[in-house]
Design brief:
With 62 residues, the protein is an alpha+beta fold. It has a single domain, classed as TusA-like domain (Translation Initiation Factor IF3). Helix content is 39%, strand content 35%. The chain is built from two helices and three strands, in the order H-E-H-E-E. A three-stranded antiparallel β-sheet has the order 1-3-2, covered by helices on one side. The N and C termini lie far apart (24 Å). It holds the Pfam family TusA. This is UPF0033 domain-containing protein.
C-alpha cells in the first residue's frame, strides 16, 4: 500500500522532480526503492533517521 501512495505522488510531479518520502518498517523499505527503480525512477538517496524511519529521495523519470 505504501508504494501505491508513493506512485500517486510521483505521478503528480513533473518529469525530473524530486519526491522526499519517509518510510517506516521493513516491508516498505524493501519494496518502495526496488519498485520505484523498476518503474524507471531514480533513487537519489536513502538515509536512516532516528526512530526507525528511513528518508528516501526519489527523482521522477523523464
Amino acid at each position: 500500500m505504501t508504494f501505491v501512495r508513493v506512485r500517486l505522488a510521483l505521478d503528480r510531479l513533473p518529469p525530473g522532480a524530486i519526491l522526499d518520502v519517509l518510510l517506516k518498517g521493513d516491508e516498505p523499505l524493501r519494496n518502495v526503492p526496488r519498485t520505484a527503480a523498476e518503474q524507471g525512477h531514480q533513487v537519489v538517496s536513502q538515509a536512516e533517521l532516528p526512530g526507525g524511519v528511513t528518508r528516501l529521495v526519489l527523482r521522477r523519470k523523464g
